[in-house]
Write a structure and sequence with these properties.
Elements lengths: L1 E4 L2 E5 L5 E4 L3 H5 L7 E5 L2 E4 L3 E7 L2 E6 L4 E3 L5 H7 L5
Antiparallel strand pairs: 1-2, 1-5, 2-3, 4-5, 6-7, 7-8
């Protein structure tokens, strides 16, 4: 997973470690394979393997990850995410 933070990006690895880089999330979006990663918010890109479930809440749609985290999907990206992850509903 990649999370943005004021022009920097946190890269989260499978082993639970994380590293900060001086690039924004947008930098990584074009470099990652589209069939493996999905951008769900202005500040979040997620590996599709880690997405377990999609929840519809009063705050908006959320993705439940295998790490236990929940990420909110932005309204602008919701239709794309919905079409891409239809099998998780």
């Amino acid at each position: 997973m990649i999370r943005g933070d004021n022009g920097y990006s946190w890269l989260y690895w499978r082993d639970g470690s994380r590293h900060i880089t001086a690039y924004p999330v947008k930098h990584y979006e074009s470099k990652l394979p589209l069939n493996e990663y999905i951008r769900v918010h202005q500040n979040s890109i997620v590996n599709r393997e880690f997405i377990q479930k999609v929840h519809l809440t009063h705050k908006g749609p959320q993705l439940c990850l295998s790490t236990g985290e929940r990420l909110t999907v932005s309204r602008r990206r919701w239709l794309f995410v919905k079409r891409t992850l239809w099998h998780l509903f």
